[in-house]
Amino acid sequence: MQSTLILYSFLALLLSVSIAYFQYYYQIKNRIKVTPILFVLKAVSLFLLLLLFINPIIEKTEITNIKPVLSVLVDNSISTSFFKEDKNVADFMKAIDGDRKLQSKFDIEKFRFGTSLQVLDSLSFKDVQTNISDGILGVQNLQKDKISPIILISDGNQTIGQDYEFINSKQPIYPIVIGDTTKYVDVKITQLNVNKYSYIKNKFPVEVILNYEGTENVTTQFSIVNEGKIVFRKNVSFSSDKKSATLQANLTSIKEGVQYYTASIAKIDNEKNIKNNSKSFSVEVIDEQTKVLLLTSVLHPDLGAFKKSIESNKQRSVTVFTIDKFTKQLQDYQLVILYQPTVSFNSVFEKIKENNTNYLFVSGANTDWNFINQKLLGFRKNAINQTENYAAIYNDAFLTFLQEDIGFVNYPPLLDKFGEVTITKEHQVLFSQNINGVQTQQPLLATFDMNDQKSAILLGEGIWKWRAASFLNTNSFEDFDKFMGNLVQYLASNKKRNRLEVNAESLYPANSTISISAFYTDKNYQFDARASLEISITNTETNNVLKVPFSLVNNSYQTEIENLASGNYTYKVSVAGQNINKNGRFKITDYEVEEQFTNANVNKLQKLADKTGGKLFFTNQVDEISKNLIDNESFYTVQKSSIKQENLIDWRWILFIVIGLFTVEWFLRKYHGKI
Questions:
Q1: Other C-beta atoms within 10 Å of 473: how many?
Q2: CA–CA separation, 458 vs 364, rounded Å?
Q3: Over the stretch 376-396, which tens digit does the pLDDT of each residue have?
Q4: Smallest Cα–Cα separation from 340: which of 453, 457, 442?
Q5: Which pTM was predicted?
Q6: Which of 622, 607, 609 is nearest to 175 (CA)?
Q7: pLDDT in tens, 20-53
């Protein structure tokens, strides 16, 4: 390519010189003094013009200076204002903005964090949670492959997320401590563990972990109160050697429904913060437990995944049997899971048809599809003895029950025999099949509701991989278990489907956002996006009523309510123009997790600084941290060279030169009478 360009350029030069020579020297007898100048002007202008037609590619090296990035993370939680550090944080940020030397060395990017990480535009100090680890990891991902020290302005008290002390940070972190560093005498409820559900007239355990900060011997009283009555009481002693205590209480479920309890520990002498002395919790008391039967023809990791996921809700229990050892009655269970059925399931299918039992059918590499197709279940598969991997495509038009997309498309594929699926009865598809990147209309998970029998099919084994992937993505099984819970709740229920379903928590911490969602269908149980829903919230103590409309978000109605005072509330969700409503209640506690701390966690912030190669400072040490960052030679500007290719025709100034040369030549010839 380069040799061809040189050849074309040489030919262009030769042609330009030849034309100029022919015009000004060939058989020209009366030459003037400016003939050499005219010759040069003609040759050069023609050569440049021909070069523009050849249009060679010009490579140009550009040098870019990339300054290190200084990421400033500011704690925007309530604890900042609780410690009365609002002004100190604002002054520190103002000093950073006004430091010209720091601005000259770094590109400064500012973020705020609390419940989540956000770009800093303003500070409100109203976030009800503090997730320091999420803030650090978020900035790290954003500044990947850059020199980017982090300034962390926080009291070091984290309420949610993974422990930031053990984060592996490639960037040095400089904690700026805010809050009171003085240690006060304090006793608090650090943790309270209780199941969400209990059965009526049964005992349920409550585990409470208490902590003490101080050096003197103290004795105080711990109690649990329900509806104004003390249901548990115990004296607890602490000393300089005994800083914590774990108490176990077994309470009795007396009334059905949601029951609210308050656990508290009495104030000790000279205790400054008593907001961490109490904690509320709720228990839903139910009449009976949903029993699920899992029948299988093979041993498989999916069995454990189904059992663990379903039983994460204590309202449900799963019993696993291999088909050859099952001797009990199907009527004892609200739902039967048929895992990779074969001909040995024949009697079970007969009982299911006879009793109209709800079931979940799960196929896999060992499923006998010839047998299944003979049972006339309303679905069939023309399977061959070859397996295929089927990934999931989420269907946002699924209406059987409310299920959000938790990233199903990124979950590992399920394994099943290859073949075309045919469904001959009314159904809803939650997932369709993706085969090696090709999206199909074939179902992967579908639900049926006919003749008072609910059923579903999951065409693939390997659901345990989905549960594992959910944990890897979110550090929790919660999203997957909630999905499985929604499926089981639908299949195990024999109640007539309600046109209006409301999803709300029974207990909210103070100052939190109250999120409530609703699902409304028409008379044919198809989602109705035309409806107008409203929630009326009543404070049972003041009788104040707040009415808030719902917003349509995808295939559900959602609303968020803020700034509700602590107390007990009832709510009523109604549909405009319809005699359809749903009632419920919830409680907003006095408990604010951000006000449970008496001082800043300096020790933990110091460990973070030491581990990452940073240094700990306080808000009154702006000059010191600025000098440390400026003098640190490991934070340097990087020069990056890049080769940029341009076409010669894009250089417009060459065209202007050509026009200029032709113009000068014309004027000279005109002046000397050669035109």
A1: 14
A2: 9
A3: 899 999 999 899 999 999 998
A4: 457
A5: 0.53
A6: 609
A7: 778 777 767 667 777 888 888 888 888 888 888 8
